[in-house]
Write a structure and sequence with these properties.
By secondary structure, the protein is α+β, with helices and mostly antiparallel strands. The chain has two domains: 59 residues, no CATH class; 32 residues. A four-stranded mixed β-sheet has the order 2-1-4-3, with no helix packed on it. A hairpin with a 4-residue loop joins strand 1 and strand 2. The mean pLDDT is 77.
């Protein structure tokens, strides 16, 4: 193996934020964040949202769209009523703007 061309292979902690699952392994990944492990040593940490500890396929928990509500309901929960109302108002204005030129053409022909 050539020296100086390969990344450093070192211990690192991978942390699943959604389930607070942590695993200490070796990797070439790098991070400026560190975490104190159970043995008292500080290791670099890579944070992410999904692992086998939180993924529905591995945990056996099924998530259905109906369980979380409809698409509009999810949108309103995510972005709030004010933004949903603003989006609806904007859509209505766009629809009325498209309808206005058609009315102008009819009156010009009369």
């Amino acid at each position: 193996m050539k020296k100086g061309i390969h990344p450093e292979y070192r211990p690192i902690v991978f942390h699943d934020l959604s389930s607070d699952f942590k695993v200490l392994t070796r990797s070439t990944a790098s991070s400026s964040d560190t975490i104190k492990w159970e043995d008292g040593t500080e290791y670099p940490v890579i944070k992410f949202d999904l692992s086998s500890a939180s993924h529905a396929f591995y945990t056996g928990k099924d998530q259905m769209l109906a369980d979380r509500g409809g698409r509009i309901e999810q949108f309103r929960r995510r972005y709030g009523e004010k933004q949903a109302e603003a989006a609806a108002k904007e859509a209505a204005e766009a629809a009325s703007a498209e309808a206005a030129p058609a009315e102008a053409v009819e009156t010009a022909d009369s």
